[in-house]
């Protein structure tokens, strides 16, 4: 009876680990998609509405709490004149929330380079940089999805079969 309970606990642990890995990968994909959507909205605001980015950031309706907090804190730093330039404020606040975003270094460097889009002096250059960042984020998203699908095909069956074999040996 004790072996059976131990086996069930072991299988539950393996399944929990696989589920945790799956959720983390899906969250990474979702966060990259959030940034792509935000960059699309930003491009639209710059191209069509010709909105000042500081005003846009204050009024943006963003559902992702970490992104919203990043934008709000950047705006507050600029309003209080604690940081002279928007690029510095963006970098400071992003570094503060880096752990919460939990993204790859390549994705993180793209997020940091958004400072040039939001606080650049030339609207046409800002739009071009935004399109470039969005294009690279799209490529990164596709790569992440492809990698996740490949790993999922291997990790889940191997994890479950390996744990079943392990249990058969010890039962």
Salient structural properties:
single chain, mainly alpha, elongated
Residue windows where pLDDT falls under 50 for at least 5 positions: none
Determine the fraction of residues in helical runs and give it as a percent range. over 70%
Number of strands: 0
Shape: elongated
Secondary structure category: mainly alpha
Largest sheet: none
Please state roughly what percent of the residues sit in beta strands, choosing from under 5%, 5-15%, 15-25%, 25-35%, 35-45% or over 45%: under 5%
Query: Radius of gyration in whole Å, from Cα?
Result: 22 Å
In DSSP terms, counting alpha (H) and pi (I) runs of 4 or more, how many helices? 7
The sequence of SSEs as H and E is HHHHHHH
- Termini distance? 11 Å
Give the overall average pLDDT.
Answer: 82
Tell me about this structure.
With 171 residues, this protein is mostly helical. Helices cover 85% and strands 0% of the residues. It contains 7 helices and no strands. The longest helix is centred in the last third of the chain and has 48 residues, at 123-170. It is elongated.
Brief characterization of the structure:
The protein has 171 residues and is an all-alpha fold. Helices cover 85% and strands 0% of the residues.
Reconstruct the topology from this structure.
Blueprint: H1 2-47, H2 53-59, H3 65-79, H4 86-96, H5 98-101, H6 105-119, H7 123-170
Helix pairs in contact: 1-7, 3-4, 4-6, 6-7
